[in-house]
């Protein structure tokens, strides 16, 4: 085992290198750029046997990535935020071609107003595209899930592209202790990609052909859905193999102090570490609070969520995203998973926090837990999402609004 | 694992002293009684909270100029942070500087100069143990009200960037020697920040509120009439 201090950018670049990817189409955007800088340097020095191409936009990047995957190349790419949205049309196409590849999205909130810090409206915009989605809490997880993502995406029961999400700044530019896997171990875990009907000059294949007969469209789309659902089992099996080789365990969800908990906080991505700290603090004060981390977001791990949350008194779903006009994106999915259970939680509290990278303090998380507890005591439901926003922040905003208005 | 915003820092290191008084940066915010502040400055600076927190100073810019000939402070500040907290050994610190700078593709002699700089910074800094940190202030969650048209991100006070005195991070201050100056206007033309104006006789006047100290004026002056002085005093 070799321990290194790696940034998230370095770690996912290493994952691509260890996965022996063939092709890397790239286009820079903050906070993703460091990843492709590292890869281009390795390719230039001959340390990596891959073709690196700087494209002219993310739309071209995704088109190149998908078509290369359709020829049977193992493809890695990365983007972020506006870049993901600029190439958005191609996400649905690549998934529809059933072309597996891995795209790292370095989460950054969407304009306008423009910012560089993370929330998950960028990656969740791709929620319905057919890409598998893996959300990571720390640098090690980002590296490992890129490897797992290739194995799951390329499995013939799945054959769908995958996004591995990693928060900008909090992971991309933060050095953490990482166990960098040995090449031989990765080779054992990740066999060569065996494409289905690859495009060859000698044997032409038409991919993504028009289907102007509606039942055909319906059929193929639902095939994608079933392939994505297959990824739940494929991921579990791959994770077992991963654990055997690398001694690290990954499930679609991660439970933290859940066994005797009566209130459960649901979170994903890097701010989950703050949620775990809040759980520790509340445990010290004698409150039975736990946390459920959603690691695999597509396919949605309904059964794991039912297993972890049934019989609990309160569930607090902290969404670091907002579907404007509704609320958090994951909360309705959690609620739907639990609706038909007799022992469903009394309260499912939708919470919005950390938009545009806004910090979350332990007190804010404690406040959300208190609100949920009060609702459960009153046998009442939430009126709408609870926004976590602090007094010191309100004062700052007020002073900046005054400056902006010239008042 | 801890992650996210540090609300109550035990150690704060300030590279650019003018930031101490910057209303948007607020580097001392959240510092508890008993916490430790290090300021990169050759002399003491009056700080309001200095009774509660322990403040130390070091002229890292001077050392960086000595070793590197440039005001590049990352290795120096990193070394001070390692020593101040007492958590990281000299050997580990040197290894980290070497590794990090090698990753950037720097030449061996530049890495070595950075290591020398970091070593001197490390050895000339005293470790300060934390003692009796006061309680953390609690955050209160408040409701965000709908503000109508005030809630639209429009900027009505356009041109307000002038409120930020961009000269505050200057390391070198250009000073015009009127005895040598021929009022040729070359500095006026070359200043990338447009903060040199001309007086009635055509001599340059530098607006130090916005001069960043890039010294393009001093480089371009055909008579070498512009001297660079190390900036020490900030207001």
Descriptive overview:
The complex is a heterodimer of chains A (407) and B (235). Chain A has two domains: 2-197 and 205-246, Thiamin diphosphate (ThDP)-binding fold, Pyr/PP domains (Rossmann fold), CATH 3.40.50.970; 253-394, Rossmann fold. In chain A, 51% of the residues are buried. Chain A has 407 residues and is an alpha/beta fold. Chain A has helices at 8-18, 33-45, 58-71, 81-86, 88-97, 121-125, 139-154, 183-189, 214-246, 272-284, 302-309, 330-338, 362-377, 391-405; strands spanning 2-6, 23-26, 51-54, 76-79, 102-107, 132-135, 162-167, 176-180, 253-256, 263-267, 289-294, 296-298, 314-319, 347-352, 386-387. In chain B, strand 5 (196-198) and strand 6 (204-206) form a beta hairpin. In chain B, the strands form three sheets. A three-stranded parallel beta sheet of chain B has the order 1-2-3, covered by helices on one side. Chain B has a two-stranded antiparallel sheet with strand order 4-7. Chain B has 235 residues and is an alpha/beta fold. The interface between A and B is medium-sized, with 30 and 24 residues.
What's the short version?
The complex is a heterodimer of chains A (407) and B (235). Chain A has helices at residues 8-18, 33-45, 58-71, 81-86, 88-97, 121-125, 139-154, 183-189, 214-246, 272-284, 302-309, 330-338, 362-377, 391-405, and strands spanning 2-6, 23-26, 51-54, 76-79, 102-107, 132-135, 162-167, 176-180, 253-256, 263-267, 289-294, 296-298, 314-319, 347-352, 386-387.
What's the helix and strand layout?
The complex is a heterodimer of chains A (407) and B (235).
Chain A (H helix, E strand, L loop, with lengths): L1 E5 L1 H11 L4 E4 L6 H13 L5 E4 L3 H14 L4 E4 L1 H6 L1 H10 L4 E6 L13 H5 L6 E4 L3 H16 L7 E6 L8 E5 L2 H7 L24 H33 L6 E4 L6 E5 L4 H13 L4 E6 L1 E3 L3 H8 L4 E6 L10 H9 L8 E6 L9 H16 L8 E2 L3 H15 L2
Parallel strand pairs in A: 2-3, 4-5, 5-7, 6-7, 10-11, 10-13, 13-14, 14-15
Antiparallel strand pairs in A: 1-8, 6-12, 9-11
Chain B lengths: L10 E4 L21 E5 L13 E5 L1 H9 L5 H12 L4 H14 L4 H16 L48 E5 L9 H5 L5 E3 L5 E3 L9 H5 L5 E5 L5
Parallel strand pairs in B: 1-2, 2-3
Antiparallel strand pairs in B: 4-7, 5-6
Helix pairs in contact in B: 1-4, 2-3, 2-4, 3-4
């Amino acid at each position: 085992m070799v321990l290194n201090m790696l940034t998230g950018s370095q770690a996912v670049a290493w994952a691509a290198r260890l996965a022996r990817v063939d092709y890397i189409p790239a286009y820079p955007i903050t906070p993703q750029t460091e990843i492709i800088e590292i890869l281009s340097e390795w390719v230039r020095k001959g340390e990596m046997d891959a073709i690196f191409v700087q494209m002219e936009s993310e739309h071209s990047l995704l088109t190149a990535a998908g078509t290369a995957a359709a020829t049977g190349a193992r493809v890695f790419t990365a983007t972020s935020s506006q870049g993901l949205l600029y190439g958005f049309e191609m996400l649905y196409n690549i998934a529809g071609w059933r072309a597996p590849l891995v795209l790292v999205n370095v989460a950054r909130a969407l304009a306008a107003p423009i910012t560089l810090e993370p929330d998950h409206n960028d990656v969740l915009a791709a929620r319905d595209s057919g890409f598998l989605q893996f959300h990571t809490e720390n640098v090690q997880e980002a590296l490992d899930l890129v490897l797992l993502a290739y194995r799951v995406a390329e499995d013939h029961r799945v054959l769908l592209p995958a996004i591995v999400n990693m928060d900008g700044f909090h992971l991309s530019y933060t050095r953490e202790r990482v166990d960098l896997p040995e090449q031989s171990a990765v080779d054992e875990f990740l066999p060569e990609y065996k494409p289905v009907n690859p495009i060859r000059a000698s044997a032409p294949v038409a991919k993504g052909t028009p289907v102007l007969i509606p039942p055909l469209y319906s059929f193929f789309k639902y095939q994608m859905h079933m392939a994505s659902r297959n990824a739940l089992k494929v991921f579990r099996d791959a994770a077992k193999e991963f654990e055997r080789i690398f001694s690290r365990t990954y499930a679609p969800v991660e439970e933290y102090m859940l066994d005797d908990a009566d209130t459960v906080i649901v979170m994903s991505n890097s701010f989950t570490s703050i949620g775990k700290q809040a759980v520790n603090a509340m445990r010290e004060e004698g409150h039975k609070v736990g946390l459920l981390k959603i690691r695999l977001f597509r396919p949605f791990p309904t059964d794991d969520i039912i297993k972890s949350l049934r019989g609990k008194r309160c569930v607090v779903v902290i969404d670091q995203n907002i579907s404007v006009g509704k609320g958090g994106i994951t909360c309705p999915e959690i609620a739907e998973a639990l609706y038909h259970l007799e022992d469903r939680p009394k309260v499912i509290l939708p919470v919005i926090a950390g938009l545009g990278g806004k910090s979350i303090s332990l007190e804010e998380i404690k406040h959300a837990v208190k609100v949920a507890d009060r609702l459960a005591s009153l046998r009442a439901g939430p009126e709408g999402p609870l926004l976590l926003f602090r007094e010191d922040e309100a004062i700052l905003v007020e002073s900046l609004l005054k400056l902006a208005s010239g008042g | 694992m801890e992650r996210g915003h540090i609300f109550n820092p035990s150690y704060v290191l300030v590279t650019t002293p003018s930031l101490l008084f910057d209303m948007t940066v607020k580097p001392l915010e959240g510092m508890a009684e008993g916490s430790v502040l290090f300021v990169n400055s050759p002399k003491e600076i009056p700080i309001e909270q200095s009774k509660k927190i322990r403040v130390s100073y070091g002229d890292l810019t001077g050392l960086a100029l000595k070793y590197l000939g440039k005001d590049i402070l990352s290795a120096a500040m990193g070394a001070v942070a390692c020593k101040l907290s007492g958590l990281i050994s000299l050997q580990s610190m040197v290894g980290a500087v070497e590794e990090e700078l090698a990753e950037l593709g720097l030449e061996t002699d530049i890495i070595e100069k950075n290591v020398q700089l970091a070593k001197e910074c490390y050895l000339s800094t005293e470790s300060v143990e934390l003692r009796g940190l006061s309680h953390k202030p609690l955050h209160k969650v408040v409701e965000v009200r709908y503000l109508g048209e005030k809630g639209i991100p429009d900027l009505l006070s356009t041109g307000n960037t002038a409120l930020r005195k961009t000269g505050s991070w200057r390391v070198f201050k250009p000073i015009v020697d009127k005895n040598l100056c021929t009022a040729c206007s070359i500095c006026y033309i070359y200043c990338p920040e447009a903060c040199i104006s001309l007086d009635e006789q055509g001599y340059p006047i530098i607006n130090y509120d916005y001069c960043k100290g890039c010294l393009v004026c001093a480089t371009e002056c055909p008579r070498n009439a512009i001297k660079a002085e190390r900036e020490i005093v900030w207001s």
